[in-house]
Amino acid sequence: MDRDIPLRDVMVQEVVTGNRDLTVLEAAKLMRKHRVDSIIVVDQGVPVGIITEGDIISKVVSKDTKPSTVELEEIMTTQLVTASPNDSVSEIARKMSRGRIRKIPVVDEGMLIGVVADVDILSVSAEMNSLLAELLEIKMDRGTFSVEGESESSGQGICEKCGDFSHYLSMNDGLMVCESCKEELETMIVE
């Protein structure tokens, strides 16, 4: 993945938001209406929390609490990790991976301007991996590899076998794969 791709190029600008006093029932209706799985909770345009389908299930439904009696402020996640529109996609992908975060609000001068989800980054990465695979095939066709059958390291991205982010991808059996998947594929070939 190219380190120079700014987040502004992959973020979603149409963000579904709600106020702290919005009830879980109202939030669930908004989520269904807009076909999203989360809502960014804002206070005068500033993100202060996030509520996800998982929060609704684990903090309301599983406790048999009536959704119309619970406000978002009571169950929202407030330890928000945010990003700048100028942050690189690879930097944010690493931050999301380390923190096991699926969505990050994008903030400019304190105001919410978008959101980026793991699927947004995966789609960019998949496209980059596909282009990289094509370039490697061209390179292979030209005979530029020094040892036949040996794969060449090609940088970082999302492994096309396991879907995990890796700093070291290589071409193996027509796929861009991480080291552990490469070993697994090589083991399967030997057996």
Q: How is this structure best described in words?
A:
With 191 residues, the protein is an alpha+beta fold. It folds into 2 domains: 111 residues, Roll (CBS-domain); 70 residues, no CATH class. It has 6 helices and 8 strands. The strands form 3 sheets. A 3-stranded mixed sheet has the order 1-2-3. It has a 3-stranded antiparallel sheet with strand order 6-7-8, with helices on both faces. A two-stranded antiparallel sheet has the order 4-5. The longest helix has 24 residues. The protein is elongated and about 60 Å long.
Structure described in brief:
This protein is of the alpha+beta class and 191 residues long.
Looking at this protein, list some descriptive labels.
191 residues, alpha+beta, 2 domains, three-stranded antiparallel sheet, 6 helices, 8 strands, 36% helix, elongated
> Can you tell me the CATH topology of the largest domain?
CBS-domain
Number of helices: 6
Radius of gyration: 21 Å
| Shape by Cα distribution | elongated
CA-to-CA gap between the ends? 33 Å
Q: How are the secondary structure elements laid out?
A:
Blueprint: E1 17-18, H1 24-34, E2 38-43, E3 46-52, H2 53-59, H3 72-75, H4 89-99, E4 103-108, E5 111-117, H5 118-141, E6 153-158, E7 165-172, E8 175-177, H6 179-190
Parallel strand pairs: 1-2
Antiparallel strand pairs: 2-3, 4-5, 6-7, 7-8
